[in-house]
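Late entry, zinc ion complex.
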Amino acid sequence: MRLAIISDIHANLEALQQVLEDIRRQQADRIVCLGDIVGYGADPVACIELVREQASMCVLGNHDAALFTDSQRAYFNPHALEAVRWTAEQLGADHRDYLRGLPYRISSDHMLFLHATPRAPEEWDYIFSGMEARMQARHFYERLCFIGHSHIPGVYPLDADVVEYDPEHRFMINVGSVGQPRDGNWRSSYGLLDTVAGSYENRRVEYDVEAAAAKIIANKLPSRLAERLKVGL
Ligand code: ZN
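Prediction complete; structure with ligand written out below:
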């Protein structure tokens, strides 16, 4: 099976469309989404509808949760908060209900899918390093754990003496962000797992970043959210 794992789309339709196109070319059998479909970008409705239609599984992200729980908003910076308020105005009841229905975690086929951390996915802590990833290892039993949230792709071995991805050992894998990469590379990031070949690949996909940025400005969202797309930070 070829499994495409996408995360942190953040209402960037231009990015999502190109990633879905690449996933088609790669002939993936299934798509899993790790949350944060909305927030920051200018196309929350179209992105929710595409994910709902094309992903076979999806978990909840903190920006999705902010649309139906006030408590999440306390942790947001002013730009993110402004985007949440704007996004709330765009969504209909069915879009909000879809987000509200997303689970924090899904376990399937020796794989765990969630947005933040296995220890407490609802606390939205970040994992930035191999050491932080290894501290999470005892909080799940699956072989693989796929995460998003930091927008920085990474493959973290959880067993000693393992350096590269292989199908025998345990790993935590951050697939990066489709709609707002933050590793200094503006290209969309997603993960492609091939369970037959025993391989994992972090793919980067070019998209019309100028068009996505222009829509953010046109909708009077904070201009910083447009600028950061162009530099991937
Ligand atoms: Zn995010």
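The chain has one domain: 2-230. Will revisit in the morning.
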